[in-house]
Each structure stands twice: as structure tokens, then as C-alpha cells.
Design a protein that fits this description.
Elements: E1 19-24, E2 43-49, E3 56-58, H1 77-93, E4 100-104, E5 120-125, H2 128-136, E6 141-143, E7 158-164, H3 173-182, E8 184-195, H4 197-203, E9 215-216, H5 219-228, E10 231-239, E11 244-251, H6 258-275, E12 283-286, H7 290-299, E13 308-309, E14 327-328, H8 332-335, E15 340-343, H9 349-359, E16 365-370, E17 373-377
Parallel strand pairs: 4-5, 4-7, 5-6, 7-8, 12-13, 12-15, 13-14, 15-16
Antiparallel strand pairs: 1-2, 2-3, 3-9, 8-11, 10-11, 16-17
């Protein structure tokens, strides 16, 4: 059944396909023999584009053997030499000597065998016959296919991975990429290669469409797919006369926000100390913007300040959300004076401090909340 949503981002495909090709080869592999010709027919290919991320893709079902990697190109001595040098550079660049690396979709081990002996090389392949051939040749290969992000691979976690001319075959690329990501160590890196749709567009290569290739990645759409599935793209370039896009990626790290807690504790201490200098309920805050509201809640000073001043009439006469401090107009400083005002007005703080000093006299103590803490204003 034809799909109508993007295989990567889930947005709708444009209603009108980019191309329709009638009576095309069903697949690039498993050629019919003479006995099968009478019942052999072509298939109609529909090339669509995502209305969201822009990825070009077939709306067709995958070929029956989409989980297997079959590499006729591996018979090329030139390609083997190119891959050997490419792998050596990749391993050196990311200091992977002695580390564990896995090729996802390793076929019969044609490229896996090119990795040098100073890495711990593993492979994953769905074809039982290919796995047997790999094992017979002394390669560490398991049978399987990543069709879920929660899958746990034998010998995981890995420090690096290869995914070479396989992603474009996958009906659910997100599941495979998330599965790879979840089987990597923190900081794990990868080398991903796909056919280059940018070149197809440049050179008008209308004959490049085949049922095996469901996805047609440009640099931009490949980067989007990788970023959506937990990878930072370190480098993306063209290879083999532009026919291939090669992306080097790293598993995205969780953000480190531990410094937020230290900063909060510092500001909390400064505000507590400042309010403590004055009699109870004789300190106000100027500013009812989102940062001031958050600061009042986080520092738990609602019971220690008299009110919050704000110049916006629609806020006056209301209360701060969650902390329930009255929000008042600036002239309340005359009818219900305080000894000190903490200005929390972000970019307007210096302007507010000037208004306080000019209109409400020199007797009011003023402090401005800066990024680094409280700053007393003379």
C-alpha cells in the first residue's frame, strides 16, 4: 500500500507526486530466469516529496529483501582501495584504534573485512547466508535488522558504526537510526553514506530511481534525518565524483546544566542577604515579566516582599502566578512606601532604576538583578 506521510518526519507528502514512472523493474536484484519471464511484470514507481522536511521518497512498498545488503560494487578493486583508505582516515580522525566498531548491514563482509586488525570489528546482517559467509571468513557478524529503537545488539555498546549505502533502503529509517544510537557509547561516532540526490538533480539523472531505494537524500534532508534521531552531524561531503554523500556523526550528548544550580544558589544567597538588611515587608520587586516571576518562585521570597511593581496596567491589581504577590502600579511607592526595591526588569532594569531615583527620591535603596548577581545602585 502506498504511503502518504514522510518516512522520516511524519509530515504529509505533497498531494501531487514529483514523478510517476510506469512499468519499471520491480527491484535491482534477483533477476528472473527464462522460466519466470511469463509471469514477470514491472511496477509503477511514484516519487513524492515531504511537505515538511523536503525529503524525496517513493510511496511504494519496500522490496521483499530490503533487510539484506547485496553489494555488486564490492567486486571493484578501485572501490576496495578507496574504502580501505577512507576507513583508515576515519579511525585515525576519531582515535578508534582498539575500539569497538560495528557495520550495520554488512552484507557478506566485503567492507567489514577492510577494517584494520587494530579495531574490534563487528557486523550486523539479516541474510542468513551472508552471515554464514562472514563467519566462515573469520568475521564477527550477528544476524539481525534494526527495526526498533529499543533493540539491544550483541556485544553492544559500540564506540563507532558504519552504515554504508543501506539507509536509503529502509522503510523505517528512524527506527534504525535510533537503534544504532541506543547501542553506542556516549560520544560514539559513525560514518553514514547514501546516494546523492543533489547530484541527481544537478545532472538530471532521471534513470536513478529504483524500487530498492525508498529514500533520496540531499545533504540537507540527510542532515535533518540524522539530527532528528539523536546525532550531531560533524561533517558532510560528497564522494566518488559526487555520487555519494558521506556524513560523519556523533551521538548527541545530553546537555550539562549543572552550572544553573550553582548560579541559582549564588543569586539565592545574594537576594536573601539583601532582603535581610531591611525590616520585614519593606522590600519590593520591580518587574512582572516572565524572568521576574520565575525568580520570585525559585528564590521563595514571596512571603518576604511587600508587592511587585509593574508599569503595565493590565497586570496591575492582579497577583503573580503561583506565588500570589500583589502586582501594583509604580505610584504605590508613595501611598505604601518601602525601603528597598530589587529591580528584575531584564533589559529595562537600568531605565527602571533611573525612574526610581528620579521620581521616588534618594532614600530608596535600589539593587538590580544582573546575570552575575545583585548590583547595588548608588
Amino acid at each position: 500500500m502506498a504511503i502518504n506521510t514522510c518516512r522520516v518526519c511524519g509530515r504529509a507528502l505533497w498531494a501531487e507526486p514529483l514523478l510517476r514512472y510506469a512499468n519499471m523493474p520491480k527491484a535491482a536484484q534477483h533477476f528472473p530466469d527464462a522460466a519466470a519471464l511469463a509471469g514477470e511484470t514491472g511496477v509503477d514507481l511514484t516519487v513524492c516529496q515531504c511537505s515538511g522536511c523536503g525529503l524525496a521518497q517513493l510511496s511504494n512498498a519496500p522490496v521483499p529483501y530490503f533487510q539484506e545488503v547485496i553489494r555488486a560494487a564490492a567486486f571493484s578493486a578501485v572501490l576496495r582501495d578507496l574504502k580501505t583508505r577512507q576507513f583508515a582516515g576515519f579511525l585515525e580522525k576519531y582515535a578508534l584504534q582498539g575500539k569497538k566498531i560495528i557495520e550495520i548491514g554488512c552484507g557478506r563482509g566485503e567492507f567489514l573485512a577492510l577494517l584494520p586488525p587494530d579495531v574490534q570489528a563487528y557486523g550486523l546482517e539479516y541474510s542468513a547466508a551472508s552471515v554464514a559467509a562472514c563467519v566462515q571468513n573469520g568475521l564477527r557478524v550477528s544476524r539481525g535488522y534494526l527495526d526498533g529503537g529499543a533493540a539491544v545488539l550483541a556485544d553492544a555498546p559500540f564506540d563507532a558504526f558504519l552504515l554504508l549505502m543501506f539507509l536509503e533502503h529502509m522503510p523505517d529509517p528512524n527506527a534504525a537510526l535510533q537503534g544504532i544510537c541506543n547501542n553506542l557509547n556516549d560520544g560514539g561516532v559513525g560514518l553514514i553514506e547514501v546516494p546523492n540526490f543533489d547530484m541527481l538533480l544537478r545532472d538530471k539523472l532521471f534513470s536513478e530511481f529504483i524500487g530498492d531505494h525508498l529514500l533520496y537524500f540531499s545533504r540537507e534532508t540527510l542532515r535533518t534525518a540524522l539530527q532528528l534521531n539523536g546525532f550531531d552531524v560533524l561533517e558532510c561531503h560528497e564522494l566518488r565524483d559526487g555520487y555519494v554523500i558521506a556524513a560523519e556523526v556523533r551521538k548527541r550528548a545530553r546537555l550539562d546544566v549543572s552550572s544553573f544550580q550553582a548560579c541559582q544558589a549564588k543569586i539565592q544567597a545574594a537576594i536573601d542577604e539583601y532582603i535581610g538588611r531591611f525590616p520585614a515587608n519593606k522590600v519590593a520587586v520591580w518587574g512582572a515579566g516572565h524572568q521576574a516571576l520565575a525568580m520570585i518562585a525559585l528564590t521563595k521570597i514571596a512571603g518576604r516582599i511587600r508587592y511587585v511593581i509593574d508599569s503595565a496596567p493590565f497586570k496591575q491589581g492582579k497577583f503573580t502566578p503561583a506565588t500570589h504577590v500583589p502586582v501594583v502600579a509604580p505610584n504605590t511607592l508613595r501611598s505604601d512606601p518601602v525601603d528597598a526595591v530589587i529591580v528584575m526588569a531584564a533589559a529595562y532594569s537600568d531605565e527602571v532604576a533611573g525612574i526610581l531615583r528620579q521620581h521616588y527620591g534618594p532614600h530608596i535603596h535600589i539593587a538590580i538583578l544582573r546575570d552575575f548577581g545583585l548590583e547595588a545602585v548608588g
